[in-house]
Amino acid sequence: MTRTITVTGTGTAEAAPDLVTLSLGVETRRDTAAQAYQDAGSTAAAAVDALRRNGVADRDLRTSGLNLRADLVWVEGQGQKVTGYVASTTLVVRLRVPESAPAAIAAAVAAGGDGIRISGIEQGFTDAAAVTALAQDAAWQDAAERAGQYASRASARLGSVLSISQPPAGHGPVPLGGMVRASAAESVAIEGGESSVSASVTVEWELLEPLPTQQPG
Questions:
Q1: C-alpha dihedral, 62 to 176 to 105 to 33, nearest 10°
Q2: 9 bridge partner residues
Q3: 24 class by beta-carbon count within 10 Å (0-12 exposed, 13-18 middle, 19+ buried)
Q4: What is the Cα 96 distance to its own chain's centre?
Q5: 60-70, pLDDT tens digit by residue?
Q6: Distances in Å between the alpha carbon of 66 and those of 6, 42, 62, 131, 160?
Q7: pTM of this prediction?
Q8: Which domains are seen in the chain, by residue range?
Q9: CA atoms within 13 A on the CB side of 119
Q10: SS3 for 39-60, per residue?
């Protein structure tokens, strides 16, 4: 019977982020559906134009979701009553120069006015592969060291690797208090610091008998 040992190692790598991903919500409430829809489009276009003037390329601008709904209230004796219409959409913006991100965001907020919401911001990497590779190397090293320690305590040594598995890793945006109204055009500093990428790996090794101890000649 082959003896084995299975160990999960974890590792983390840190680096300064070079990409800011911003989610801008556009929301307008008007008396008619047509007016709400039209004004939402105008607000989004104004914000996009401001971002372009601040160096954001078209490939880094994406519209996500479009919603037009009636705003309903309950009136005693009358049931539900339409009080207006709300149109909304989301702009997903990639800012590749973090230092200029505050000015670009401020320009979009000023252009969009009260129809703009800041729904989230995420700092990451343009090319996360290099940072991920460092985290994976650290995870492997952690697994190997743990396995070696356990094998030694079991009076054995590590043999061949029998299996390797890596669970998928993911992360979400860092929220800014949910959907918040951006009422000031002044820029807010975005502190970059360092962002971390974590990885884990599960490795199964064969356990071998320890090497014989050489007797002194």
A1: 60
A2: 201
A3: buried
A4: 15
A5: 999 988 999 99
A6: 48, 14, 12, 35, 54
A7: 0.65
A8: 1-16+127-183+194-217 (3.30.110.170), 19-124 (3.30.70.2970)
A9: 15
A10: HHHHHHHHHHHHHHHCCCCHHH
